[in-house]
Sequence to fold (533 residues):
Amino acid sequence: MATEQVAVPSGAVAQPKRLSLLRVLGPMHVWALGVGIVLVGEFMGWNFTVAKGGVFGALVACWFSGILYSCVAMIDSEVSSTVASAGGQYAQAKHILGPLAAFNIALFIIFEYCMLAAGDSLVIGAIVKSLNPVLSPTPFVVLAIAFLAWLNYRGVHTTLTFNFIITAIAFVTILVLIVGAEFWNPGQITHTKELFTQPPGSVDPKMPYGWLGILAALQFGIWYYLGIEGTCQTAEECRSAPRALPVGTMSGLITLLVSATLTWYICTSLVNWITLGESVYPLYDAAVNTGMNWLKVVLWIGTVLSCLASANGCINDASRAWFAMGRDQFIPRWFGGVHPRYKTPYRAILFLVPIMIAFGYTGLLDQVITFSIISGCLIYLIMPLNMIRFRRLYPMDSIRRGYVSPFHPLPSYVLFVFVMLTFVAMYFGYWRNLVAALVFYGLCSVWFVLHRFKYVDRAKLYTMPWPRPKGY
Amino acid sequence: MVWINYAAWAIAILLLGWCIVDAFRIETTFDHDLLVSSVEGEIEKEIQDHAHTQTQGEGGS
Fold:
């Protein structure tokens, strides 16, 4: 451990010379963080692709987004296994693109995860209320965030071990649904053939709006994987970041690619495409259509656990980004505090809790989630630039890399084009939200450049023991 | 069933209250400079030092 102790007079409390985050995480925890944040997207949200693009359009959106996130995972694995620092993409951008890009990326990360945590807690509140109308959702929204914040405060190892357990259970519930619906016996419980056939006098459920519908579906396709990039927030807390981050991120992405395709198959084989396109809990509705009560209970548990896992990971990630900004004085240095016993960024965690609760309190689930998605996509827009410049500044063999992204620069170009297409799709449905988000981030950037940057100690901004970048 | 709502509020307040009390205790026990002493790049420095020590060891043997 990097924490060092100093000799003190007898009777006094021994205080270490320097505090650092605890390095206890392995690939399992990285997997739990990445998949935990994302898996909720399988339980809700992705199904709006069906309303826009039909059942085949939804599958195209699923795999299109799968390619997009494969590029994200490859780029993230290379850069974050090299820049092993809390803040993930923020720290990467700081070293590669400069302070303004880093500041913006940190804001994108924080809002992406704070809003997502608020959205998850809102869903938990709604699920609890669905049990009995007497139950109010608000106390459960607050309780979910309070419990997970308490867990995060107490230590990263327990937090992500807990996330591993609940994420694994939630993933298994999807497999249980597939087996319970007897996927090997089509026509018995599942009705793929009937549900994919065009009824007389109606539109074709496969691609009701053609390629334009598929384009519109892209904005919801990212629900299958949104948040997997959060794995690199743990870089500073991994026992071996160069190994744990690529293994955890890649295995997480493979898990999500499999679960996304399985989710699409089982839901479209059990639920009519129009009902599915409007469903709030598509996997749960699929379980309802099997007619088996025990499957309904299993999927209800899976839905709740996936929401909890997602909110838990979001609190972890948002607090690391806020902490990293505080450490670099992009915001007051006070936020860069580390708990001397639990070795967690406790001030950042506590500061973000009321913000998450406030967003959860609004009850505006669609607005909260849309802002989260826009913020996430803005991160993906900067990542290709980051990667290309990273390879230019630090060519191969100039610094030690834990993972080398194959086919460079192809993943960067593919990512850039695919994100732009997703933004086009988003513009059709949510142009006001998109413009509002850009104006908000623009104003924040102005504040940073004109006011905050003068407080940043530039001499302490770059403490990585790296060689001088090429060309400098 | 309404009591469950109150129970949820109570547990939430208890958990957050515990965090706030603990944070206050930390703020009053430890120096501010110590609490914000974390710096980026410690892992890289350790790895480099380790590699340097190994190289020296191999050169000396």
